[in-house]
Specification:
Elements lengths: L2 E15 L1 H8 L7 E8 L2 E7 L7 H9 L2 E10 L14 E5 L2 E9 L4 H4 L14 H17 L7 H16 L4 E6 L4 E4 L3 E2 L5 E2 L4 E5 L13 E4 L7 E5 L9 E2 L5 E5 L2 E6 L6
Antiparallel strand pairs: 1-4, 1-12, 1-13, 2-3, 2-4, 5-6, 6-7, 7-8, 8-15, 9-10, 11-13, 11-14, 15-16
Helix pairs in contact: 4-5
């Protein structure tokens, strides 16, 4: 299955990636069919992605040389199960809604999503042919009712839509995903293929850091977060624990809303009444 990673911090931080190491940490080994990195910059996002392994990528070298600083970074490494190896099918996906860029990355599968949720997406159409992108279009379609109102959107209103969407997607298969509107990060943990071959929770883990770590274990997993000398608060989400620190598994169906390195809301699985 694919690998997810996300960083949310109180202060903008510079992060560089060796995604081949990251993929090996998650168990993909050489089976990397594409990669993507999204660095938020206010309402906009710098999106880099390639439909090929990251080991010898000139683009990844370019990203590292840019030394991009951001409070919110999302990453996806693809293990293709549906759709051709193409830019259109490489995550994260990004779309505009309400004058800001929205980003989505998924690990898992959504069986029969076209038939079970037919005609649920109108304004937002998939560019590629993955089930993940269709799910993103459905989520944006539901959220567009909030954004089109012109009123200030509460976190609770967005979280309700996201939680209902997550509950629907869980019925179709393993549904671990990261989504952000550039203001708040929304995370949903479910099940994933474990090392013993079973499909079971946890599908995502998270770690809260309250200070910089000068001898950062993350570098062994291919991720380097550069300390800036100031007191930093960071939330990290990943498909598997990336260090020997006290990572917490997300329960099946758990939803988290986070912003600037802080958890805003942590909800158990949403169940329709």
């Amino acid at each position: 299955m694919c690998e997810l990673f996300c960083l949310s911090s109180r202060l903008a931080t510079t992060a560089t990636f060796s995604l081949q190491k990251f993929a090996q940490r998650g168990g993909l080994g050489g089976a990397v069919d594409g990669w993507g990195l999204a660095f938020y910059d206010g309402r906009d996002v710098r999106l880099y992605k390639e439909p090929e392994p990251a080991g010898d990528s000139a683009w990844l070298t370019f990203v590292a040389q840019r030394r991009l600083s951001s409070r919110l970074v999302l990453s996806h490494i693809r293990h293709a199960t549906r759709g051709a190896l193409s830019v259109a099918n490489t995550q994260p996906f990004a779309r505009e809604l309400g004058g800001r860029m929205h980003v989505f990355a998924h690990n898992g599968r959504f069986d029969c999503i076209e038939s079970r949720h037919a005609h649920e997406w109108q304004r937002f159409q998939p560019v590629g042919d993955t089930d993940s992108e269709i799910a993103f279009c459905i989520l944006l379609e539901r959220l567009s009712r909030l954004w089109s109102s012109g009123a200030a959107l509460s976190v609770d209103a967005r979280l309700t839509v996201f939680s209902c969407f997550a509950a629907d997607m869980r019925k179709l298969g393993p549904a671990n995903f990261l989504y952000s509107d550039g203001d708040v990060l929304f995370v949903h943990g479910d099940r994933r293929s474990q090392r013993n071959g079973t499909i079971a929770p946890p599908g995502l883990w998270y770690l809260s850091r309250r200070c910089s770590n000068e001898s950062d274990e993350l570098s062994q997993a291919g991720i380097v977060i550069e300390p800036d000398g100031e007191a930093q608060e960071v939330l990290l989400f990943a498909s598997v624990p990336l260090t020997n620190e006290d990572w917490r598994p997300l329960n099946e169906g758990e939803v988290i809303a986070a912003k600037n390195g802080h958890v805003l809301s942590d909800l158990p699985a949403f169940v329709e009444g």
